[in-house]
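Structure (tokenized):
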């Protein structure tokens, strides 16, 4: 009888260990997936920032050229 209980306990411990390993693997996969999504989001946000900056600088130059034209051709 004691041998059977020990075997059952060992089996239970092995099952628990396997469950823990599976949970750790799932947690790692989820963490990698979150990191991947965060990097994609960061890349998209950075690209948008550069586009907005380009439009802003382009607009400033247009305004500057209009002002220069107005000063040179005004009375």
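Design, position by position:
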């Amino acid at each position: 009888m004691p041998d059977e209980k020990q075997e059952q306990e060992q089996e239970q411990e092995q099952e628990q260990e396997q469950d823990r390993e599976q949970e750790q693997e799932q947690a790692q996969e989820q963490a990698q997936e979150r990191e991947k999504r965060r990097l994609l989001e960061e890349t998209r946000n950075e690209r948008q920032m550069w586009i907005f900056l380009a439009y802003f600088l382009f607009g400033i130059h247009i305004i500057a050229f209009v002002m220069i034209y107005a000063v040179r051709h005004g009375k």
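Reviewer-requested clarification: The helical segments are 2-73. The chain has a mean pLDDT of 91.
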